[in-house]
Amino acid sequence: MKIAIVGAGLTGLSAAIALKEYANVVVFEKDDVGGLASSYCREYCIEKFYHHCFRGDNALLEMIKKLGLSSKLVWKVARIGYAVGGKVYPLNTPFEILRYPHMSFMDKAKLALFTIRSKRRDYTKADSVSVVDGIRQELGDRLLEKFFMPLLKAKFGESYPEVSYAWLLARVSIRSNRKYSGEELGYLRHGFHQLIERMREDIEIMSKAARIEKNAGWVVNGERFDAVIYTAPLPELDEKIRKAAGVQDVKYQSSVCALIGAKKSITEDIYWTNVDRGIFGAIIEHTHFMPFEDYGEHVIYLASYSSPSGWLFNAKSDELRKLYLKDVARFGLEEKDINWIEIFRAKYSGPIYEKGYLNKITPYRTALKGLYIAGMTSKPNYPERSMNGSIKAGMEVAEVVKADLEV
């Protein structure tokens, strides 16, 4: 029994782990193994795009345990902030929130109650409601315009009006494991590249693009397979195959991230700062989460989002470096403070969770016998993509394949 897996991200690797004892599994990956969780290595390794995990990430935590990495898993309270006009305001303790000057006491109370209620709500019921309408109806125009709108525009760009309210409710619910002084997050000390390296052990990975053909069965790069599991972004799947498989079109966004090694930090102790305007929508100071001593310099992400056809994704790296350096200077981080800067991009980093997205979730079985699809558009990644959701999708699609092929 031969099974081809297209894509060596967390979904593809998870499926390969679950199937390798039952079949001859070959994984095809044209880019970096690990996908969005791949790392950039210097004297140390760090993810190209920021990563952390949550206490409820059961599939991810089980994989970490299975691969003998539990001792590396660190849980810490990470402080957050909001930057308005270039000034960063911490928003962690009740006192810090009360002191925040850009929101009335009444709006702060509304936001606190909204956060508490979101933990108990069935967010799928808001799937057909736009995030703008949902916020406006529940929290009012002031909070929409002054607090949420900059975040939505930074996250989704011009596509923000299409986003479902379910996305926001789920994000607040899933990511609200708060302690008194901040939110508790997890990380594999010294990097998630350790997880990727363990996952890929004993798996045959072909470092080339996969050309998939339907020819009295399935052929990938001239080699016959009994089944194909496709885990790469849907737009990269041949359009004829996609249509024959009955897969709905899904709108994707792109990620562009500046990764910086610096002589000094931007804030004193804040891990995640949302930014009200500029080329990047968030500052993630990794060395306010993990020890500075692990890296010997401050490691900082400047995170941006774009459409795959947008100027930001398609701009030249040198141009982007200049723009990021100019924009981050208003936070006191000047070019002389920076040891190095790298630009990383992911053209299809995740779907845009539009209104009615529940009806677009991709089933594991397709209309074409022997072709399976799993990954960002699978149910475990609704309505917010995550490492946990991707691993869960890989494990679930493997069970479907085993049942169908009776392996």
UniProtKB/TrEMBL annotation:
Domain Amine oxidase: 10-401
One Pfam family it belongs to: Amino_oxidase
GO molecular-function terms, A-Z: oxidoreductase activity
Gene3D superfamilies named among the record's database cross-references: FAD/NAD(P)-binding domain
Protein name in UniProt: Amine oxidase
Species of origin: Archaeoglobus veneficus (strain DSM 11195 / SNP6)
